[in-house]
Amino acid sequence: MLAPRLIPCLDVKDGRVVKGVRFQDLRDAGDPVLRASAYQDQGADEIVILDVSATPEGRGHAVDTTLMVRQVLSIPLTVGGGVRGVDDARSLLEAGADKVSVNTAAVKRPALLAELAGRFGSQCTVLAVDAAESSPGRWEVVVNGGRTRTGIDVEAWVAEAALLGAGEILLTSWDRDGTRSGYDLDLIAAVASVVTVPIIASGGADNAGHLHDALAAGATAVLAASILHDGDTTVGSLKDELLANGTRVRP
Q1: Which residue(s) pair with 133 in the sheet?
Q2: What is the CATH code of the structural domain delimited by 5-244?
Q3: Are residues 206 and 183 in contact, defined by beta-carbon separation less than 8 angstroms?
Q4: Of the listed 11, 51, 177, 213, which one is catalytic?
Q5: Sign of the C-alpha dihedral, residues 93, 95, 98, 100?
Q6: Rg of the Cα trace of the chain?
Q7: What does pTM read for this prediction?
């Protein structure tokens, strides 16, 4: 088995990296090109860029940002936000993305996942799921940057998405996002029990112990943002700590 991946996430708005809590109260966190380059130098396995305002504002996808980041990046790059069809995905892939993430558009029209997988392959098709707890042990899908609750059961949705062709699940706990209180381990385990595709855990990381726990719960990769953007740690330090705790990491 491949070692787990450690993936910095760059939430981008108007060409700048931002970070907030539960997708709100966004604060500036730097230039995406400089951030991506620095995280690659620190040992990041991949980079994820999410244009967090594209869908709520009805805008297109972040082609310009993708082009600029790809110029300094040699590791895999996933880009999402505002992808509504095959043409949007193609533009991002031609700009340098290796994978394209879809969220709201796929919820509105699940066939989009099959179209993307059929045209570009499941390995390029990532379903981003923002999950909010609806009752103890149950979660519902939220869309439009967390502004809209859909009532759609997360476990049922990811299972359907995998059958349609999603090759990876980017699973974010809306409740934990930006709180640094640890990943929602029950959510990760629930999703891991219904799909066999890789799961990227997102939302709540504060330290290497949280990353270890997410991987133990069933994630195959862990996303981190606040702790890296704020300079509290580095990708390399997190990997060293994981390795010291017996968790395999990629060199």
Answers
A1: 139
A2: 3.20.20.70
A3: no
A4: 11
A5: negative
A6: 16
A7: 0.93
AA identity, residue 136: P
The SS3 call for residue 180 is coil
Residue 14 a catalytic site member:
no
CA–CA gap between residue 42 and residue 199 (Å, rounded): 23
What is the C-alpha separation between 123 and 126, in angstroms, rounded? 8
The active-site residue, picked from 51, 130, 177, 213, is 130
Residue with tokens 């990708």: 235
Using the CB atoms, write b or e for 85-96: b if 16+ within 10 Å.
Answer: eeebbebbbebb
Mean pLDDT in order along the chain per 10 residues (251 residues): 92 82 67 96 97 58 88 97 93 96 96 98 97 96 87 98 98 92 97 98 95 97 93 96 94 85
- Residues of the chain by 3-state class (helix, strand, coil), percent to 5: 35, 30, 35
Active site residue 11: yes
